[in-house]
Amino acid sequence: MVEKSIDQATLKMLKKAQRDGIETVWDRLAAQEPQCGFGQLGICCRNCNMGPCRIDPFGDGPSQGVCGAGADTIVARNLVRAIAAGAAAHSDHGRGIASTLLASAGGDTADYPVRDEAKLQALAAEYGIAVEGRATAEIARDLANAVLEEFGTRKGALQFINRAPEQRRAVWDKLGITPRGIDREVVESMHRTHMGVDNDPVSLILQGMRTALSDGWGGSIVATELSDVLFGTPRPVKGSSNLGVLKEDQVNIILHGHEPTLSDIIVHAARDPELLQEARARGAAGINVCGMCCTGNEILMRHGVPVAGNFLQQELAIVTGAVEAMIVDIQCVMPALPQVAGCYHTKIISTSPKAKFPGAEHIAFDEHNAMETAKKIVRIAVENYSNRRAEKVNIPADQMEYMAGFSVEAILEALGGSLNPLIDAVKSGAVKGIVGVVGCNNPKYIQDNSHLVFVRELIKNDILVVGTGCAAIACAKAGLLLPAAAEQAGDGLRGVCTGLGIPPVLHMGSCVDISRIMTVAAAMANALGVDIADLPLAGAAPEWMSEKAVSIGTYVVSSGIFTILGTVPPVLGSQNVAELLTGGAEKVVGAVFAVEENPAAAAKLAIDHIAAKRKALGL
Amino acid sequence: MHIVIIGNSAAGLAAARTVRKVAAGAQITVISDEPGPAYARCLIPEVLAGSRDLPGIGYVGADFYRQYGIELLAGQTVTSLDVEKRELTTANGRSIGYDRLLLATGASPVAPDWPGADLPGVFTLRKADQAAAAGRWARDCASAVVAGGGLVSLKAAYALKERGLPEVTVVVKSPHVLIKQLDAQSAALVEKELAKTGIKFVYGVEPVAAVKGPQGAVQAVELADGRRLPAGLVMVGKGVRPNVELARRAGGRVDKGIVVDDNLATSLPGVYAAGDCIEVTDMLTGDKTTSGLWTLAVEQGRCAGYNLAGLPGSYPPPLTRLNAAQFGALPFISAGDVRGGDETAVYQDGGVYRKVCFRDGRLVGFIMVGKVDRAGVYTALIKQARHIAGRLKDKVAGGTVTGADIVYSRTVPVR
Amino acid sequence: MQEVLVDKERCLGCRSCELACAVAHSASKTLLGAVGEAKKPLKRIFVHQTEAGKIPLNCRHCAEAPCIDACIAGAMHRTAEGVVTNTGGPAECTGCWMCVMVCPYGVIRSEIAQRLAVKCDRECLDEAGEPACVRACQTRALKYVEVDDFSREKRERFLISLKS
């Protein structure tokens, strides 16, 4: 099973899963293989009912769909639809947070007080909302309304794009890809990819870029920034990671999905004395709340809550037999969970009205009765402790400490209030550059292997890594989020990390928090008076799988940052589209995608790219 | 049991192979009047062209005869046959006994009856040594005339062009080339492709004489209309005639070819016949005709092989018109009756031509030029002789029918 | 011998077999590599739409193969393993299309420019000895099985039916 993961906890639980007769994501992948080549190449189209159509990639069959769309059009349309779906996911997440802020400001819920007033005021100022002498609730209401307005705004462009340097905005304006409204771009992408609308691959991909930008500089920033307002801006915090964080003698609750809205409350609810009392009454020593995936990242960043694992470990957490409840909200939650849980005592509780799971218990959650619902859910978990069967419990011992919580504000604090020390370190070459390593796990690739090989290679070469999402959890489990990991870094980076007491890999949050990375990149460019594309930066999604990652990669590239994909996107059915993304885009947005499945080779691409950018800057 | 096969080409070899397969212990002797092991007769134009030598058109592996335990008596002509004694005699006086005999004696080119037909430089194209000789002769020639517009003639003309002769003229009595296989439209495409190489065509006229030059060899061909075409080499392609003399002299029944029954047995006891030397019944017309196709010879040889080995099997009336070739970049296939029929569907787009012919709701023939994929499905439909209607007919007419349509058809084939 | 059998009720027409066949006959042997190759690989299995449904069809490697009979060059032959192929035999294919003319399944391709007949050659077996098309079939509409006498006979009856 070495080919499935390099995570020992995963491997142990896979063995247990096999013994217990549990089918996991790897088994289902094997059952799917061989996967459809047309899909892999992006040359099947189901957009209308004259189809489904597919193009023969070897020129040995149909070269056009029924409507006449060729491979270029079909591949581009499919790509744009994936971007739209990814952007929609992040942006809808952002809308949820903004709605919660509005409810909080309107006094509709007492459970979500503004926890970061300074950030509220800073954001209000960014939006031109008066703050002097106004009550927090009033400012919050105005900000929430202003942000919600961004989804359907008619003012021509999104507010947050103004964070980007002028040069970058000029590029977007020139190409006509400045995002005009968060919802609008997704809607227009769906429209354009409808049968018989936009058929020009270049035009389609430009719209894909605009849609992605509406995520990166719209929906995702909204999600990040307003979450900080409501739940607190992350500060460096310590905790532990991997399946070993589950406790044999406690009620284990796993919070899985993406939003902080419920999970943050559950963290508080689990401290309720009455519930703790109940847990003890049932023989548990306490209530152990753990995270999983990006919901895990949200509460890890803010509270140092232990994180039980990343994407490919969601089923395996249940396989430990020690999880009383897995509470899920939205995104990346495998529909297989209730089936796996059915073999143990674990309850899967879905909470979002947007995301229901056959076989799971649904407890609708909304911000108006947050604490009440949270307690109800925790109580179900506590009560379920009595159903736990000791003979089925096997928690792997593997766990690793981490230091996380590196919001932009936290980084600035660590640097003494300004980015200058970091910029100086980059100028001096102590830090050669910065690479954002983000994204998912993908069972087609050895779990965490690409992340870790890639990241270790970078830090060895004095490249500071900033991470989010499942990539960051992979780093956490491997000990790379500890200041001690600076030992694995090159001399320059080690010196910087040791001096500041920070790890060589900075955990910046969940996948919407890639917006934090964009904010840092923009700030660096502004400080140097250059475009983002001029900076020694790169992005990478070594094990990506989701449509959100497609949107992320596209907005990162569209923002001028070279991005390496470690899993092959379904675009190779059109050489023209593939060439545009990996070559032609350079002249247009100043950055391209690269696809490299070998993480060591991918690291070399990033290192070479950073060296070239440094040289161009005269560094 | 000693099985003797006269003929070392398609039918003879297929028979020998089959006998060996089903009668492991049989003694097999193959006698051939040609020297050396079997070769691909249809490829001898390549020898004429000089693109291959004789070993280059070998039809079996070097080890074939030893591997199959076949005694090959090459370069020996059988002169007589005593069916009472079950014994044959070769030209060099050797007597060979047999238990069962197969006549796979093939066919010989029809020699022209015009004056000068025996001049040096006048050739026919049937055997490898003829092709080699004509090729050698062609080295010193600037011009050639090919008499006849059939497949062998056109292959010869093409080969002579490949060899580099500046002037090659094909004299065709019919209004267009390949009169047996193609219609005027498709023949025009083939002619155009051949004309690209510089081959010239003269239609509606026949040679009447070969004209002797100062060196005693041919130097021109005189046509019926009085024209004279310069010709350092003349290739005569006027068809072939079954080699029936041995059977006839032994008292066997002979009509258009050696007459055989359903089991390919001749009228002579213990004697079978297969290949170009026999007469068959055309499956479409019911007419008696000569056979003369490599693929039929192989089928017959195999069928004869079973019978020789004592496993009776019948040979049904074959489709006798069936041919494929490619000139330049233009492939074509023709099968069955391509000009009869009561309904035709024709498609032409540039160099691609397709014609399918139906009679009484059955497919009876087709021509494909330029694109030939899935032609075998059409051939199969002709052979099945089934009623074709509805969507299947649309597909057949439209050129989109596939093997799946007939293999998995709901329609039961009718005879 | 083992043959590729079609369970036509199960074919969804996804054409994965076609792709897998082409990839198995490519230089790189991988899908993502094959799409970039200058000389596009050729499939030797074809998914057809018929009145009876979707049907993948490739060479049946007939017991008395008409293509072998018809081959005027002596290239088409049967290997010791029972595979009917025109490569690696006693002679080279000359592209005369006789095999194309007689194959009732229509599964021999004519590569006109190359003067080469191209067909299923079983040069695609994986470590488990399974052909690429069978391996690629998601619904098990294609199976690689030892054929019983009944099925073989049924197939031979079809061929005999062609002999009028």
UniProtKB/TrEMBL annotation, chain A:
Q: Does the keyword Iron apply?
A: yes
**Which residues does the annotation say bind [4Fe-4S] cluster 2?**
C45, C48, C53, C67
| Binding annotation for [4Fe-4S] cluster 1 | C36, C44
What chemistry does it catalyse, as a reaction equation? Answer: CO + 2 oxidized [2Fe-2S]-[ferredoxin] + H2O = 2 reduced [2Fe-2S]-[ferredoxin] + CO2 + 2 H(+)
Keyword Iron among UniProt keywords: yes
Tell me a Gene Ontology molecular-function term this record carries: anaerobic carbon-monoxide dehydrogenase activity
Database matches in InterPro entries = CO_DH_a-bundle (IPR016101), CODH (IPR010047), HCP/CODH (IPR004137), Prismane-like_a/b-sand (IPR016099), Prismane-like_sf (IPR011254)
Identify the residues that bind [Ni-4Fe-4S] cluster: H258, C294, C332, C440, C470, C511
The coenzyme or cofactor needed here is: [4Fe-4S] cluster
The record's keywords, sorted A to Z, are: 4Fe-4S, Iron, Iron-sulfur, Metal-binding, Nickel, Oxidoreductase
The GO biological-process annotations, alphabetized, read as: generation of precursor metabolites and energy; response to hydrogen peroxide
For this protein, the Enzyme Commission number is 1.2.7.4
Looking at the Swiss-Prot or TrEMBL record, what is one Pfam family this protein matches?
Answer: Prismane
Subunit-structure text: Homodimer.
State the similarity comment: Belongs to the Ni-containing carbon monoxide dehydrogenase family.
Protein's UniProt name: anaerobic carbon-monoxide dehydrogenase
Can you name the source organism?
Answer: Desulfoscipio geothermicus DSM 3669
UniProtKB/TrEMBL annotation, chain B:
Tell me which cofactor or cofactors this protein depends on.
Answer: FAD
Cite the FAD/NAD(P)-binding domain residue spans from the record: 1-301
Kindly list the GO molecular function terms attached to this UniProt entry: oxidoreductase activity
User: Which keywords does this chain's UniProt record carry?
Assistant: FAD, Flavoprotein
Q: Where is the NADH-rubredoxin oxidoreductase C-terminal domain?
A: 318-384
Which InterPro entries does the entry mention?
Answer: FAD-bd_OxRdtase (IPR050260), FAD/NAD-bd_sf (IPR036188), FAD/NAD-binding_dom (IPR023753), FAD/NAD-linked_Rdtase_dimer_sf (IPR016156), Rubredoxin_C (IPR041575)
The record's annotation in PANTHER family points to:
NITRITE REDUCTASE [NAD(P)H], PYRIDINE NUCLEOTIDE-DISULFIDE OXIDOREDUCTASE DOMAIN-CONTAINING
What protein does this entry describe? Answer: Pyridine nucleotide-disulphide oxidoreductase
Automatic annotation (TrEMBL), chain C:
The alphabetized UniProt keywords are: 4Fe-4S, Electron transport, Iron, Iron-sulfur, Metal-binding, Repeat, Transport
List the molecular function annotations (GO) for this entry.
4 iron, 4 sulfur cluster binding; metal ion binding
The record's section on SUPFAM superfamilies has: 4Fe-4S ferredoxins
Q: Which InterPro entries match?
A: 4Fe4S_Fe-S-bd (IPR017896), 4Fe4S_Fe_S_CS (IPR017900), ET_IronSulfur_Cluster-Binding (IPR050954)
Supply the PROSITE patterns for this chain: 4FE4S_FER_1, 4FE4S_FER_2
What are the 4Fe-4S ferredoxin-type domain coordinates in residue numbering? Answer: 2-30, 84-113
User: Origin, by domain of life?
Assistant: Bacteria
| CDD domains on file | CooF_like
Q: Which PANTHER family match?
A: ANAEROBIC DIMETHYL SULFOXIDE REDUCTASE CHAIN B-RELATED, PROTEIN NRFC
Q: What is the official name of this protein in its record?
A: Carbon-monoxide dehydrogenase iron sulfur subunit
What species is this protein from? Desulfoscipio geothermicus DSM 3669
